[in-house]
Write a structure and sequence with these properties.
alpha/beta; TIM Barrel; 304 residues
């Protein structure tokens, strides 16, 4: 199992070289590279100039840190065909970058519109039909997560979509700060992880509040607080223990599933190598020097 840190919270504050060194100073061996304006920006075509690539490779060489995975967010589920085609072109370029950098995993979202679920579902399957042969040819693992304000927010349905392809090059991402959307506020982490089963290859760790509970979040005017009466969603990426997520349940279930060793022991392991668990804290950059190392130590204590 690879333990990674999502550098989004750092990339907004410092250069590539500096955040690679920061992650190394905290004791992490792996970086999950979330969307970055110089590399893989949200929704837009990847960039990653030769100069940027050289800077990144040099920082990795200096520290011994590796990139476990890229995250990309492209509108490969439309809702328009033009958006979908642009997104597929973006995907093809990011796949080239991943292969060139030796990064075996790409973590992504469905990236659709909850108000146009039918068309986005069809668009996503169309994109998968075009991209999966390329993904399999290159030996990458692409991992799918549903996300708040997506055409599918539900854990079980998204797992079923991933499983429908029956491909060793696809995996499922369980993101704990999205979990209350995944089962409409129940927060039954044990069921969600177990339902993902063998397709569970990636877990993102951060805390959040249960958005279905009265006054966990307060917005004005008052009707914005009622889910379904407004076209918004809200969640957070706090440190473990600061919200409502059942982390004892998550760690206990991951131990029961042997998540830390499963890829190594599998008779037919998925592409992309080891499973990944990633610290996905965004909310308080001023606390990261304490929170990031503490998260690493807890993951080691709970799973290794």
């Amino acid at each position: 199992m690879k333990i990674a840190f999502d550098v989004d919270v750092l990339a907004k504050q410092m250069s590539i070289k500096d955040y690679v060194h920061k992650v190394a100073d905290w004791g992490y061996k792996y970086i999950e590279q979330s969307p970055h304006p110089r590399i893989n920006p949200f929704y837009k075509h990847p960039l990653f100039s030769k100069e940027c690539q050289a800077e990144y490779k040099q920082a990795l060489k200096e520290t011994g840190v590796e990139i476990s995975s890229f995250i990309c967010v492209y509108r490969w589920s439309g809702p328009t065909e033009e958006q979908r085609q642009f997104a597929v072109a973006n995907w093809k370029r990011l796949i080239e970058i991943a292969v060139d950098m030796g990064v075996p995993v790409i973590n992504t979202e469905l990236s659709g519109d909850p108000n146009q679920q039918e068309i986005c579902n069809g668009m996503w399957f169309r994109s998968m039909e075009e991209l999966l042969p390329i993904i399999e040819r290159e030996g990458l693992r692409v991992e799918i997560q549903s996300h708040p304000y997506d055409f599918c927010e539900l854990n079980d349905e998204t797992c079923d979509m991933v499983k429908s392809f029956r491909s060793k090059n696809l995996g499922y991402v369980y993101s704990s700060p999205h979990g209350f959307f995944y089962d409409q506020g129940k927060g039954d982490v044990r069921h969600m992880l177990q339902y993902a089963g063998d397709e569970l290859t990636h877990v993102l760790l951060a805390d959040t509040y249960n958005q279905t509970m009265d006054c966990r979040y307060i917005a004005n005017p008052p009707w914005l607080n009622a889910r379904g009466k407004s076209d918004v969603t809200i969640h957070q990426h706090l440190a473990m223990g600061e919200g409502d997520v059942d982390f004892p349940g998550i760690f206990e279930t991951l131990r029961d599933m042997d998540f830390a060793n499963k890829q190594l022991k599998a008779d037919a392991p998925k592409a992309g190598g080891d499973n990944i668990i990633c610290v996905s804290y965004f909310g308080f950059p001023e606390k990261m020097d304490e929170q990031a190392p503490a998260a690493l130590e807890r993951i080691k204590r709970e799973l290794l």
